[in-house]
Amino acid sequence: MRAGHTRMEIEALDSQRIDGWGTAYVVPREVREGYTHLIRSIEDPDRSPRPEGGREDRAPHLTMKRQPKRELERQMLKHLDDGRARTLNRLAVELWDQNACTVFTTQVNDILWDLVERGEIEHSMHAPIRFRRVR
Questions:
Q1: Is residue 78 situated within a structural domain?
Q2: How confident is the model at residue 90 (pLDDT cuts 50, 70, 90)?
Q3: With the C-alpha atoms ordered 39, 8, 29, 26, is the resulting torsion angle positive or negative?
Q4: DSSP 85-98
């Protein structure tokens, strides 16, 4: 059960979903840290193998924090345009060769939920949480 919500509230939210997708429910910002959207799916790809000597960017979370929010948002939306539902981990691996734990510490998490709030993407209601474009 999500933090801060009673069983009745969760059941009411679940009754609002269409085909298991949250189109009416946005996770409140104060409980997002405890939401299960960091759970990976068995179908998620792995990051590329670490090259000998390590990766060139040794602090990718800091590099991403310097990227303009609009550019990251554009990349995410363009990638989701194919209609496939993806976990945050899959999205991060496919776009930036990083995992969900790394991008979660950047503005990517806020961008993700901003897109949900604006109705541009939606999320599944059960783990592993997947995100997809609203059609």
A1: yes
A2: very high
A3: positive
A4: -B-HHHHHHHHHS-
89 located within any domain? yes
Question: How many domains, the chain?
Answer: 1
- Evaluate whether residue 33 is within a structural domain: yes
Q: In terms of residue numbers, what domain contains 71?
A: 28-45+59-133
Contacts for 92-101: CB closer than 8 Å, 24+ residues apart: 93/44, 93/45, 93/46, 93/47, 94/45, 96/60, 96/64, 97/47, 97/48, 98/47, 98/60, 98/61, 98/64, 99/40, 99/47, 100/37, 100/38, 100/40, 101/38
Query: Does the pLDDT of residue 4 top 80, yes or no?
Result: no
Q: Is residue 121 part of a domain?
A: yes
47 near 88, Cβ under 8 Å?
no
CATH number at residue 72: 1.10.10.10
Confidence of residue 2 (pLDDT cuts 50, 70, 90): very low
The pTM assigned to this predicted structure is: 0.73
Token pair listed for 115 = 């897109």
